[in-house]
Write a structure and sequence with these properties.
Layout lengths: L1 E5 L9 E8 L2 E7 L5 E2 L1 E4 L6 H13 L1 E15 L6 E14 L7 E7 L14 H12 L1
Length: about 140
């Protein structure tokens, strides 16, 4: 699998949202109840939702973020290396001020990290590092 980033709005249609979150100056990741690996918050855009609405919903459901600033970062495409199949998404960056208990959902816990964990500890190792690299580039 590969992942490519694009300017905001470049891809036009979206299936997914991804939220790159920070809390108290650290990376905030979530762990699914059925996995031992860490992932960003995000998921499918529901019918009738805008990407921003989906990002806000997923951020709360998967992290318990109650107060935060969120903004679009970039578009992304992820799929097969030969680009024969894949999906578009929009990436958001969230700076979280307040966390509450995670709502009953598929997530077991959230945790902060000084740095992104090694690829073998990430649920989506072909996607997550690419998106955080884009975040670092945009910050500079």
């Amino acid at each position: 699998m590969i992942c490519k980033t694009h300017e905001i709005g470049a891809l036009g249609t979206y299936k997914y949202v991804v939220v790159l979150s920070c809390y108290q100056g650290k990376i905030l990741l979530s762990r699914h109840k059925e996995r031992d690996t860490w992932e960003t918050q995000g998921g499918h855009i529901e019918p009738g939702e805008t990407p921003l609405e989906a990002a806000r919903r997923e951020l709360y459901e998967e992290s318990g973020a109650a107060e935060y600033e969120i903004s679009p970062l970039c578009d992304y495409w992820a799929g097969k290396e030969d680009e024969s199949a894949g999906a578009n998404g929009m990436v958001f960056h969230a700076c979280i001020r307040t966390l509450v208990a995670i709502p009953e959902s598929e997530m077991a816990e959230v945790r902060t990290f000084e740095n992104l964990p090694e690829n073998n500890m990430l649920t989506y190792p072909a996607i997550t590092p690419v998106l955080f690299c884009r975040l670092r580039e945009e910050a500079n």
